[in-house]
User: Fold these one by one.
Assistant:
Number 1:
Amino acid sequence: MHFTKSIIAASACISAAFAATHQIQVGTNGQRVFDPPTVTAAVGDKVQFIWVAGNHTVTSGGGSTGAACQPNGAFNSGFLIGNAGQTNNQPTFTMTVTNTKPVTFYCAQNQNDHCQASMVGAINPAANDNDANSLVQLQRQASQTQKSGVANGITGGTVGTGSVTNKKRQLRASRFFVV
Ligand SMILES: *[C@@H]1O[C@H](CO)[C@@H](O)[C@H](O)[C@H]1NC(C)=O
Ligand SMILES: [Cu+2]
């Protein structure tokens, strides 16, 4: 009994040690973008959205055809504002990945049609470009949407502040050595 328990405890520690945080910038260079728009994440990893410029949301959307810019209730950051040119103390919305199914999201800012301008993304997107949960199809649906749905409240994650890592390539490469 004890033996089994300590194995479980040890493996829980190991998976915690391997858990990664994936940072996605919101509004890079003042544009209507998530950068990068997709990340591949494992169960237990965190995804941290960080606002770098402009007034945006990260809202879970999609789940059915044509719904890329409509809330599906899984999570919502509410409207947060990034301060252009600042790398520290920027608003963040952080969530934990609980399964490896596609998790699709969009920006609900209707001033200047953010979702319609392809401000959509996915954690673990479908690889097949014909799948509704692929980035290609999300972008296609988004471009055909008249008006985005706005969700109320902060749900499914935590709002805080953080620093822009801005070193996505280097971080990705160094993970091979660190992990
Ligand atoms: C951010 O955008 C929302 C939705 O368009 C708007 O209601 C809100 O006033 C904006 N906030 C600021 C500070 O401009
Ligand atoms: Cu936006």
Note: Confidence is low (pLDDT under 50) at residues 168-179.
Number 2:
Amino acid sequence: MTKIIDNLKQINQQVTDAKRVSSFQQDVTVIAVTKAVSLARTQEALEAGILDLGENRPEGLVAKQQEITGATWHYIGTLQTRKVRQVINSIHYLHSLDRLSLATEINKRAEQRVKCFVQVNVSGEDSKHGLAANELIAFIKSLADMDKIEVVGLMTMAPLDAEEQQIRNVFRELKQLQQQVAALQLPFAPCKELSMGMSNDYTIAIEEGATYVRIGTALVGNESEEAK
Ligand SMILES: *Cc1c(COP(=O)(O)O)cnc(C)c1O
């Protein structure tokens, strides 16, 4: 596998170029998605200077947290309600708030306010988790009394093998939704951030306003694929 530091150099260059194209002048945080790599490879990411790490399973998160200190932890996958208790007080961001039952459980189990991205299924694909765009505003308003939840932004995943224009449209729509929510000026939902873009589409996402990109394969690789 290529060294993470070399991958990062290339990615940082792409991020800089994409930010120049974006009309939003946003800051962009690169999250290293380490779900498919070992602890050693995750430590290599930290040594390369990446402090934001993303995991999508409670087991993987907990295992890495036992060995790594000083990281900012992002939970990026579907979170089962019964597993909330296991992770909610050890993460900094949840990227997958997608239903009221999950919000209720977080509100019950969290000791402090949790920064959440509400996941939206912009493309409308059946296989994707997330709220439909037309359910979003009502959902966010329904969180008003949950004092442990802060909606920092929205998250989406673009269709995997779509044309560039189709991917761009998905990201553009999420940006518009984010602006609509922010305009409501709800104290519990500042909604300034956009979590969108993965290895194959992060430059498009940044051009359309992403502030957090979640990069696995292109940055740290995928050891489970290589083992196959
Ligand atoms: C795995 C995963 C990523 C990273 O995907 P790559 O294509 O490897 O960059 C990003 N976001 C979510 C939600 C994921 O599950």
Note: The chain has a mean pLDDT of 96.
